[in-house]
């Protein structure tokens, strides 16, 4: 089991409105922020706005940073222009999802109806298996509409460690396969027998540090929620 860690939200007097630091710490966040305040040239100290403990703080941080990438401040990966309540809502949801993952063994094969379907672009057997893991990791749209004031949506996460286990390959090979799949999946469509045209599967799919997260198109969602896959 992963050692308990903390993910925190902090700001500093003089920062622009809603400019926040989202980071992790092995120890109490107050100690981490005190050390950061001493190591910077700015006279003001960081103010802790929020902290929560989790068994896998680095994974939570990576997932939160990936999901909030459009709010990132310049190239500084731990700083984001987002209102604290919205950031906290995202962090809490990701902690819940990460601490209580679904059992993929119960959902493997959920994409069976798609195995012999027509993919555009064409998928090889390894990519079809990865697509099956994505379907198994979706967990019935549990994270849809995680913001109340915006339309940001998340359907699920899949990490390289899980892919490595189920495909019996190294984690580095998993990462490579996920990066490659993410590029192809941006334009991935599928043709089902009951439909005349192709259905685009992903409205958005992103890869970041061994993590995939995705958003299904509205056209594809019914084929998942109605147990058609």
CATH superfamily placement of the largest domain: Winged helix-like DNA-binding domain superfamily/Winged helix DNA-binding domain
Counting DSSP H or I runs of 4 or more residues, the number of helices is 7
Give unreliable regions as ranges: none
Q: Kindly state the mean pLDDT as a whole number?
A: 80
CATH architecture type of the largest domain: Orthogonal Bundle
Which strand order do you get reading across the main beta sheet?
A: 3-1-2-5-4
Cα separation of the termini: 33 Å
Largest sheet: 5 strands, antiparallel
Number of domains: 2
What is the oligomer described by this structure? single chain
Strand elements, count: 11
Report on the structure:
By secondary structure, this protein is of the alpha+beta class. It has 2 domains: 95 residues; 122 residues, Arc Repressor Mutant, subunit A. The protein contains 7 helices and 11 strands. The strands form 3 sheets. The protein has a 5-stranded antiparallel beta sheet with strand order 3-1-2-5-4, sandwiched between helices. Strands 6-8-9 form a 3-stranded antiparallel beta sheet, with no helix packed on it. A hairpin with a 7-residue loop joins strand 8 and strand 9. Helix 2 packs across helix 3 and helix 5 packs across helix 6. The radius of gyration is 19 Å and the shape is elongated. The two termini are 33 Å apart. The mean pLDDT is 80.
């Amino acid at each position: 089991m992963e050692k308990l860690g903390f993910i925190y939200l902090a700001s500093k007097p003089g920062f622009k409105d809603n400019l926040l630091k989202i980071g992790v710490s092995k120890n109490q966040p107050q100690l981490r922020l005190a050390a950061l305040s001493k190591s910077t040239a700015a006279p003001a100290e960081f103010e802790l706005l929020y902290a929560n403990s989790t068994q896998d703080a680095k994974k939570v941080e990576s997932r939160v940073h990936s999901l909030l990438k459009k709010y990132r401040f310049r190239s500084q990966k731990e700083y984001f222009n987002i209102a604290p309540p919205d950031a906290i809502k995202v962090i809490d949801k990701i902690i819940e999802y990460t601490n209580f993952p679904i059992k993929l063994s119960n959902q493997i094969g959920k994409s069976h109806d798609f195995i012999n379907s027509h993919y555009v672009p064409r998928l090889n057997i390894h990519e079809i298996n990865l697509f099956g893991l994505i379907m198994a990791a979706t967990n019935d749209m549990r994270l849809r509409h995680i913001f109340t004031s915006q339309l940001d949506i998340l359907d699920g996460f899949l990490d390289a460690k899980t892919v490595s286990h189920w495909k019996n390959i190294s984690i580095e090979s998993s990462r490579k396969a996920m990066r490659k799949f993410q590029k192809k999946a941006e334009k991935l469509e599928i043709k089902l027998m009951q439909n005349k045209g192709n259905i685009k599967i992903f409205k958005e799919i992103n890869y970041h540090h061994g993590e995939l997260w995705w958003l299904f198109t509205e056209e594809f969602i019914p084929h998942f929620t109605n147990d058609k896959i």
